[in-house]
Amino acid sequence: MALxxxxxxxxxxxxxxxxxxxxxxxxxxxxxxxxQALGAVFxxxxxxxxxxxxxxxxxxxxxxxxxxxxxxxxxxxxxIAKASGAPMDVCVQASMVSAAYLQAKDDSNxxxxxxxEAADCSVAGISQ
Length: 128
Prior knowledge:
Structural class: mainly alpha
Shape: rod-shaped
Number of strands: 2
Number of domains: 2
Strand content: under 5%
Low-confidence stretches: none
């Protein structure tokens, strides 16, 4: 049971007392002040994350991953069409793959698939 000074009158008050015996004021609870300070720091951190660019960076990272997965899925669909589809289907799927790599900003694969698209569309009777 420690004594602390009353924040109103300065009298010594037990840390377990509910009110100051001299002035009747409820003493401030240091644990409560600590939890409020930690809560404020946490709130500032959350606000900084959302408005300081943390959310945008995470979204951009996720978007790149999604775009790469879309391109990979488009290649799988192209291979299915190539194995069992009509020449027109193969041309369309090659176009979808090149568009997926363009969206993913993958220049080398985009150029490769544009050439494949031109060749496949030529077989289907479509000039580019």
